[in-house]
Amino acid sequence: MADITHWADVVAEEVLARGKKHLVATGITPSGHIHIGNMREVVTADAAYRALLDKGTQAEFVYIADTYDPLRKVYPFLDESYAEHVGKPLSNVPCPCGKHASYSEHYLEPFLGALKRLGIHPTVYRADELYKQGVYTDAIKKALVKRDEIAAILKNVSGKTPAETWNPFNPICSNCGKINTTIVTCFDLDAETVDYKCSCGHSGTVPMKGGGKLTWRVDWPARWKALGVTVEPYGKDHASKGGSYDTGVLIAKEVFGYDAPFPIVYEWIMLGNEGAMSSSSGVVVSIADMLKVVPPEVLRYLIIRTKPEKHIKFDPGQPLLTLVDEFERLHSIDNPGSYEKRILELSHAVGICHTDIPFKHMITIYQAAGGDFGKIMRIVKRAGYDTKNEKCIKELADNVGNWLEMYAPAFAKFSVKDELPVQAASLSELQRAFLASFSKMISLQAELSGEDYHNLVYSAKDQDSELTREMASILGISPDQVQADPKDLFKAVYTAVLGQQSGPKAGWFLSSLEKDFLVERFSEAANYKP
């Protein structure tokens, strides 16, 4: 794999053939929770942007929130009161929680916060502000004048004939506030105004500056020209034959005199067995929610490791641990090849926390400590991890705590019992002898590491070990008669502490608990008489 060039660098090389100055753009409509499917677009754009910078290119990175798009319907997550707002620009629709300036800001704010946590820092534009600032005015004029040419492009490329009343500009009705129920009747290029009539019965005049917006298939190429976009990732729906990219290419060139940006087409992220994520369908895990659960660098890795044209299957339950394991293994390679090193570089970003504590170990530590961060820090220190960056350890602990609460399967959860579990009554004589011997041996030693505990239990297979001799003495037999299966001994450990026959990785688990507690608990279990 060492000779493979990462896809972001391949993109950068092809883009450089077009020139030395570039603007990478990404845009998402904040119509609902912005999910990790959307994250693929932004991380892909960020990776391409960073690859361009690494090659010494003059590059910029922008994110456009499509806040002037209309609310298309009452989505499953909205109450029926929003029916009256369907058709209005998202920036003009009330906030669902009442704490934000608009509907669009309600969903945009957590997304922008998530981008910062992911180490992604584009210049952010809101479409409603761009229109009100007049950024699109020239494009609106050209589109209105060349209405018939655009209609012909749409018909020839997409195969769909626009209605006779179709117009590339959608005015916002000053009476009902809707943007998708108006028809342009005439326009004045000098005054920069557009006359319209609305299905609500109202007629009026709006300024081109902020009085409406271009339809999507015209808005997109107009944006390329207005902002100078040269690179843009977009979903495969826009890349289909006759889709909005195909029409955009011709509209950009023939109407706006601009070459379409370099395309990076990406596939969907599939949520478990539920299919592609979609804000409107409710099949969604928001980026903000995922960052409560997974370290930011792992979420970046999810996107960075896979070529954009390949779909990604994501499951925040038990399979998430496989993803984290894969990332941590990559991190642990002493001499990674250039390809692996590049994946790690692009998975990291300035400001993102990183700790050497494995996610799975923190799952054990967190539950052993009952979620108490003071106890977590003591366990982390005892385990020999670097404790200087307490902030990063706290982030990881919070990730694990939220994962346990939100997505963890039942088998991953456990709780250390305050008192000896009644299940201790089921322990065999051999298991009791083991716990008594184990308790005695660890009481005589200094702090043990996870590996120490693991090796001590496995020493029961050796007839000459101190543990085996101690067990034989308690049982009144010779050491060569002790038939100890480590699996049964671990079951005894879990039974005494958790009240169940299985649990987390035993070494990590035991080293996460206070030695004095273990000594007392194992001794009590060994002598328990129900």
TrEMBL record:
Span of the annotated motif 'HIGH' region: 30-38
InterPro entries, A to Z: aa-tRNA-synth_I_codon-bd_sub2 (IPR020751), aa-tRNA-synth_I_CS (IPR001412), aa_tRNA-synth_I_cd-bd_sf (IPR008925), Lys-tRNA-ligase (IPR002904), Lys-tRNA-ligase_SC_fold (IPR042078), Rossmann-like_a/b/a_fold (IPR014729)
Alphabetized SUPFAM superfamilies for the sequence: An anticodon-binding domain of class I aminoacyl-tRNA synthetases (SSF48163), Nucleotidylyl transferase (SSF52374)
Pfam family, one: tRNA-synt_1f
GO CC entries: cytoplasm
Keywords: Aminoacyl-tRNA synthetase, ATP-binding, Cytoplasm, Ligase, Nucleotide-binding, Protein biosynthesis
Top-rank taxon, per record: Archaea
Short motif 'KMSKS' region, span: 276-280
NCBIfam families (UniProt xref): lysS_arch
Name of the protein in its database record: Lysine--tRNA ligase
